[in-house]
Amino acid sequence: MAKTHGSDRPQATAHPAEIVREYGPFAGSDKVAGVTHDGTRVWAATGAALVAFDPATGETRRTLERACDAGTAFDGTYIYQIAEARIDKIDPATNQVVASIPAPGHGADSGLAWAEGSLWVGQYRDRKIHQIDPATGAIRRTIESNRFVTGVTWVDGELWHGTWEGDASDIRRIDPQTGDVLERLEMPGGVFVSGLESDGADLFYAGGGGSGKVRAVRRPRRTTPPAA
Amino acid sequence: MDSLIAASARALATGDALGALQRIALREDPPALALRGIAMAQLGENLRARELLRRAARGFGSHEELARARCVVAEAEVALAMRDLGGSDRPLAAASATLSAHADHANASQARLVAARRLLLLGRLDEAAAELAVVDLRGLPPTLRTLAELAAAELALRSLRVADARQALMRAQDAADRAGVPALLAEVAEARAVLDRPAARRLAGGAGQPLRLDEVAALLASDALVVDACRRGVGAGTAWRPLARRPILFALARTLAEAWPGDADRDALIAAAFRTRHPDATHRARLRVEIGRLRALVKDVAQVEATPRGFTLRPLGEREVIVLAPPIDGEQASLQALLSDGAAWSTSALALALDASQRTVQRALADLEAEGRVRSIGRARAQRWLAPPLAGFTTILLLPASLPID
């Protein structure tokens, strides 16, 4: 196999993920395909409906009936949601789709994040993350990972993504320029990550795939400034 | 899983196989191949389904052994639905072990159930029982639970443990009700109907009284001396003398039992055992020899005494003598009665048991096979004949529940 940019560098520190809390499974569904955070609530894509819950209590606050097959992101106003081979831009206030763009992986997409005017889309089995124009879907840049990508999020200038390959899953920070792995949070055996979102502070929310759960995972405290 | 796979699986879960296919029709990556395989199986395209599942299993990487194992199980279930029983059972056993090792208990149980049903269809009843015994029913989804109980009922019926079969069927009904799958409910109903159908006749004074399976079992368990023309043997209480491979002795036993409590005429015995209406001294001499053999064989339960015109059966103690015959007359009925033990018979063993020529038996089997009332496995000398399973094992595929493409 051709060598990709993103090889595991030996200095990538790995430690077990600290799971703080579990939410779900949510009524009417047994899986979570994507997660996002709108500042107060966590949104989980459960296949046929987006479920918003209060992370403090775990109570469901809203449910939007929308096809939601993979990653979810929030830009401050709209929810972006991968459904089949497109990305829907949904107004959470009205549950209307205000725009749709083709997904860069033509349906092989998984994982979605919003940052700095771009959408970041994981392409699952192709082990890629695309940076795309949220208005047109045009690809601006592609980062290679060395694991299947199941979730993408940006926090404090750090690019993190969830992986799920075969029988192992982790949450890893990668260098957005080179794809090099800088840090890894290993999930316990049998616990998988599908969808990833940071709350902007010290937690990640990770979709749990077929378990139907969303897990809050602690983000490691930074002792040294992040390598960029 | 990625978005189109998720969307396709979502469609499949609602029964929309075509919708599922439409989303991934052109994709060749292993999860897509697996989903296409499942969708094709649900559309009844078993051959194509098996090919797709096989390619999916090959396509998954070595680190994706869970996904690979699930594909192997799905492929085995499709093969079972196709009644293609020729392959090796090793890949399925390996997949089952992999699933157990990864604590995927539902799919590991599914693998064992597929293996057990395959063994039942192959007439390897002991192995099927061993496989079923290790399936942990607790925590199984109701669909799988239904299948497990149906297989248990089938095993019990084959060995005439009717009470056990009845209980297993009750539990199957219960599980099927919870599963709410119409095809499963129909299968359970069909299996339960088997218990109420005539399974044999009790012959007395030239007339036959139809018996249900549990009545047959009760008779066989009673103290009576039973000459069983279905399974070809003589039994009393727990003692059972199989005579399937000794047709002359069985014909004599049956003739004597039908005449009981009277005696059977020498010429009638010769006609039944040697198939001749013109007995001579040599036949009488052979009759004496065969009666001597029969006497030795049944000496624990009955005596065979000479009378002025022939012989009579005198069961020891206060035993009654009962003759069981297949529910209807004829070569085909006798064949089916023999096969109803669920074991795999060769043509020559059947011919021997029925004291008919192999050609006659082959003709009767061919007719029965055309009507779907017997099945054969293997070819040429290795060909074996089996009764269709009582519990049906129709082609219900539980694949979607068993194969989340993670």
TrEMBL record, chain A:
InterPro entries (alphabetical): QCT (IPR007788), WD40/YVTN_repeat-like_dom_sf (IPR015943)
Family annotation (Pfam families): Glu_cyclase_2
Entry-linked Gene3D superfamilies: YVTN repeat-like/Quinoprotein amine dehydrogenase (2.130.10.10)
The organism's place on the tree of life at top rank: Bacteria
GO MF annotation terms: glutaminyl-peptide cyclotransferase activity
Official protein name in the record: Glutamine cyclotransferase
From TrEMBL, chain B:
Stated name of the protein: Helix-turn-helix domain-containing protein
InterPro entries: WH_DNA-bd_sf
Organism: Ramlibacter pinisoli
Domain of life: Bacteria
